[in-house]
């Protein structure tokens, strides 16, 4: 087996077109490194052609994704995979190849299928580099409620309207208007159905911030924003020195949590540190906020000092040279209690490369049915999607470092196509 870098792909079998793509990538690398002087007009011409190349590449990726999915489904049917599992694992493999999460890969695959089978006009313009990938994706999204025949007619009408010459906002308006006129009842029905999918989400942002978002019916979203804005205007008029945005953000936190002040959050601070620093209250090692990631020690102290909310400290030490002592019955079927917590703290998010989804399952690397133990070494944190995909034929996982000494827990994931991907647990502080 060849040496692999982080998440690297083992070179595939010889393929003339793949070899040509490698040559193109090498040529582009040479151009990027070229410091020769050219005119600004020439650079604009390059930018225009590169944008067309970006669109054409997206079209080619879409075609390859569709053909790959068709082949994988045929193989799964031939292998006798349960009907409910047909199609599982396809997006996961595309995600690994493209270095994106399985959820993002699934959205790309759905877009590719729609363009390939139901929006041929948009796809042709994408191939020619006349339509941007962003507008093509919006085209798919705005017409997803339409039957294939109606969608095909909308495709013709929208292309005839010349959306390739429009900006994103104008193109979206044309697509939305045409889709509505093509099936008004379906458009309204889609709006009513979509309200069932209302939800909240959170994701990390730069500079120790987080983004809390709500996917809401439009009238509810507008009402929430208007109420916060009204309170902010009242506070500013009364002399509050905070900005309107700061007041709105703080008010939202206070109303959601019931706290008097937004800063009085109840926090659990998990500080992972070397064993020798376990009893050092002044350690500068970074803390880990559950569901977020590392937080600088100085900011942790600010939270502890300024917050009047309840605080829990959970100090964890990184593995000493002889490895941590992890208790538990290795013959048990499920990962539970402190053992499950340790694996979650070690892995932090799904262990499939590029996934980054929250851990929902603790998976046996060597399957329990094959004699695998329920142990710290043989466990890996995964999301539901990646865990279920792994159960399909052709997926294999091999541990190459137990993670008990000075190296992180490491394994190799092999997909049904024979590609290998390296998965390393995050480095501890």
Topology (elements, then pairings):
Elements (H helix, E strand, L loop, with lengths): L15 H18 L6 H39 L11 H9 L3 H16 L2 H8 L5 H10 L5 H13 L7 H15 L1 H11 L4 E7 L3 E7 L2 H20 L6 H14 L9 E7 L13 E3 L3 E3 L1 H10 L4 E7 L19 H11 L13 E4 L14 E4 L1 H7 L5 E6 L8 E5 L5 E5 L5
Parallel strand pairs: 3-6
Antiparallel strand pairs: 1-2, 3-4, 4-5, 7-8, 9-10, 10-11
Number of domain units: 4
- Total number of helical segments? 14
Tell me the helix content. 40-55%
Order of helices and strands: HHHHHHHHHEEHHEEEHEHEEHEEE
Across the major sheet, the strand order is 5-4-3-6
Your description of this structure?
α2 packs across α5. The chain is globular. The longest helix is centred in the N-terminal third of the chain and has 39 residues. About 45% of the residues lie in helices and about 15% in strands. It contains 14 helices and eleven strands. It starts with 15 loop residues before the first helix and ends in a 5-residue tail after the last strand. The chain has a four-stranded mixed β-sheet. A three-stranded antiparallel β-sheet has the order 9-10-11, with no helix packed on it. A hairpin with a 5-residue loop joins β10 and β11.
What would the keywords be for this entry?
single chain, 429 residues, alpha+beta, 4 domains, 4-stranded mixed β-sheet, 3-stranded antiparallel β-sheet, 14 helices, 11 strands, globular
Brief characterization of the structure:
The chain has four domains: 159 residues, no CATH class; 51 residues, no CATH class; 50 residues, no CATH class; 88 residues, no CATH class. 47% of the residues lie in helices and 14% in strands.
């Amino acid at each position: 087996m060849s040496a692999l870098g982080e998440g690297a792909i083992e070179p595939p079998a010889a393929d003339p077109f793949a070899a040509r793509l490698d040559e193109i990538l090498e040529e582009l690398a040479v151009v990027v490194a070229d410091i020769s002087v050219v005119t600004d007009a020439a650079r604009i011409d390059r930018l225009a052609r590169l944008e067309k190349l970006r669109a054409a590449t997206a079209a080619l990726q879409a075609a390859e994704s569709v053909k790959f999915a068709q082949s994988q489904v045929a193989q799964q049917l031939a292998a006798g995979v349960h009907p409910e599992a047909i199609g599982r694992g396809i997006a996961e493999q595309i995600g690994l190849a493209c270095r994106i999460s399985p959820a993002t890969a699934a959205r790309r695959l759905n877009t590719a299928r729609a363009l390939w089978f139901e929006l041929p006009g948009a796809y042709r313009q994408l191939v020619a580099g006349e339509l941007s990938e962003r507008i093509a994706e919006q085209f798919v999204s705005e017409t997803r409620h339409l039957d294939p025949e109606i969608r095909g007619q909308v495709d013709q009408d929208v292309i005839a309207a010349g959306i390739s010459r429009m900006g994103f906002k104008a193109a979206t308006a044309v697509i939305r208007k045409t889709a509505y006129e093509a099936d008004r009842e379906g458009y309204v029905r889609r709006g009513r159905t979509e309200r069932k999918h209302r939800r909240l989400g959170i994701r990390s942002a730069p500079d120790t911030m987080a983004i809390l978002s709500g996917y809401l019916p439009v009238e509810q979203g507008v009402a929430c924003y208007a109420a916060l804005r009204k309170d902010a205007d009242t506070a500013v008029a009364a002399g509050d020195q905070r900005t309107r945005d700061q007041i709105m953000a703080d008010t939202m936190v206070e109303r959601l949590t019931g706290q008097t002040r937004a800063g009085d959050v109840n926090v659990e601070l998990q500080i992972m540190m070397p064993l020798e620093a376990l009893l050092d209250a002044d350690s500068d090692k970074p803390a880990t906020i559950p569901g977020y990631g590392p937080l600088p020690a100085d900011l942790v102290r600010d939270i502890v000092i300024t917050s009047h909310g309840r605080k829990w400290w959970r100090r964890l030490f990184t593995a000493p040279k002889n490895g941590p002592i992890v208790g538990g019955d290795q013959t048990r079927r499920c990962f539970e209690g402190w053992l499950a917590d340790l694996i979650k703290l070690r892995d932090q998010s799904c262990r499939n490369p590029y996934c980054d989804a929250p851990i929902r399952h603790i998976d046996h690397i060597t399957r329990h049915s094959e004699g695998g133990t329920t142990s710290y070494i043989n466990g890996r944190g995964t999301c539901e999607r990646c865990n279920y995909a792994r159960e399909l034929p052709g997926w294999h996982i091999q541990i190459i470092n137990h993670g008990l000494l000075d190296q992180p827990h490491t394994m190799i994931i092999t997909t049904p196509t024979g590609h290998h991907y390296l998965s390393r647990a995050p480095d501890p502080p």
